User: Which sequence fits this backbone?
């Protein structure tokens, strides 16, 4: 049994060694340089791996991949040492999986025939596909089970109830979350499946969500994608190239008052169901007024190109503002929310039909920030109260998680700074 808060045990460190070597062999920069705030690498192709080690977790400013498998776990052990052991085992597996390796040292077919395999096997032969795994700790983890109450960060304050939300408790919250992003859905599902397998008896899956078609760009090298309402989504998103914005609005710092979160960030998730069929009957003019952008180019109304600055003073031929006060773009704009910026990393979802002939579809919203109280909460409150888009959407799930700093090297593990 490992010591809570210590470096990774020799057993888990041995299991991680091959993955660590794979990182170096793949041409990644060294751990030392990663800890000195390097630029995030762009994979040469969608098959290639991203580095696992670094000062920040991958999967935040990493150029957004095409597929998502997100899971929230409840911790079912009441032993702190078992939880730390699990985090160490998960880290070892994550380091291997993100480099296109199998979850365990013996893999799906290399162990004893009488024992369960070290990997489930459905990703055999598949490349890394840009897989990133990002972990976060929910407010419920900081109760009296593991002595963590005094380490709960102030920004991890429970979200308020927003007007109009219809949250389903069974698909909200969770002690721990893991976000798996990849270009191949089988790779993302395989990663989550193996973490759940490793966690058997210590954690149980609370809820999960599959996503396709990223709805945000996190790099200027990426084109802006579209949501299921047909509009470009996340045009003004923070990008990995925005060093000053990331420093001020994304990454937690020691000066924020929680030393163990320095280099980390805070994640908010919202499952937003869209009434697709009703929206599809709305006129183009109404749709564009609701968003405040044209549907084709994505330009702010009154302008020509997607990235033109929004002009809230622009008037139409009738003398009325081109961009309405209840438009989505105006209500979400930093200038109307105390200069609050978010790094969005959401995905479209379609979960079949609802039994009434309507698609169960919408947006699985994910946003990262330095302090949700100052960023997500004011923006969402503004939208919940006034957004014309609310006629066509409803929020049914919510999550809030503290994502710790990155894993430094093969002897480190997810959340070590919390348990130190």
Assistant:
């Amino acid at each position: 049994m490992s010591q809570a808060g210590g470096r990774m045990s020799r057993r888990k460190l041995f299991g991680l060694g091959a993955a660590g070597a794979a990182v170096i062999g793949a041409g990644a920069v060294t751990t030392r340089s990663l800890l000195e705030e390097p630029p995030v690498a762009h994979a040469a192709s969608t098959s290639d791996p991203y580095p696992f080690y670094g000062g920040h977790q991958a999967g935040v400013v990493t150029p957004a991949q095409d597929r998502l498998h997100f899971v929230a776990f409840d911790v079912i052990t009441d032993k702190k040492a078992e939880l730390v052991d699990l985090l160490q085992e998960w880290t070892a597996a994550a380091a291997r999986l993100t480099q296109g390796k199998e979850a365990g040292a013996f893999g799906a077919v290399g162990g004893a025939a009488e024992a369960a395999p070290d990997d489930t096997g459905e990703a055999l032969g598949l490349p890394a596909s840009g897989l990133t795994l990002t972990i976060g700790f929910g407010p419920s983890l900081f109760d009296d089970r593991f002595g963590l109450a005094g380490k709960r960060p102030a920004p991890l304050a429970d979200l308020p109830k927003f007007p109009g939300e219809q949250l389903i408790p069974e698909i909200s919250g969770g002690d721990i979350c893991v976000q798996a992003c990849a270009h191949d859905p089988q790779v993302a599902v395989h990663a989550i499946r193996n973490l759940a397998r490793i966690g058997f008896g210590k954690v149980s899956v609370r809820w999960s969500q599959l996503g396709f078609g990223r709805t945000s760009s996190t790099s200027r090298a990426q084109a802006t994608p579209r949501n299921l309402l047909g509009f470009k989504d996340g045009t003004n998103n923070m990008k990995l190239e925005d060093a000053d914005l990331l420093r001020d609005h994304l990454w937690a710092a020691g000066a924020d008052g929680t030393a163990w979160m320095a280099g980390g960030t805070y994640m908010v998730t919202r499952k937003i169901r869209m009434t697709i069929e009703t929206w599809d009957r709305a006129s183009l003019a109404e749709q564009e007024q609701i968003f405040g952008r044209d549907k084709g180019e994505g330009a702010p109304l009154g302008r020509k190109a997607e990235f033109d600055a929004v002009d809230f003073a622009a008037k139409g031929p009738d003398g009325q503002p081109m961009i309405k006060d209840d438009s989505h773009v105006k209500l979400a704009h930093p200038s109307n929310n105390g200069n609050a910026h978010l790094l969005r990393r959401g995905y479209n979802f379609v979960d079949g039909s609802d039994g009434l002939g309507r698609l169960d579809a919408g947006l699985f919203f994910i946003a990262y920030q330095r302090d949700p109280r100052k960023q997500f909460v004011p923006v969402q409150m503004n939208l919940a109260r006034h957004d014309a888009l609310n006629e066509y959407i409803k929020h049914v799930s919510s999550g809030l998680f503290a994502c710790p700093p990155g894993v430094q090297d093969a002897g480190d593990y997810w959340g070590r700074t919390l348990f130190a």
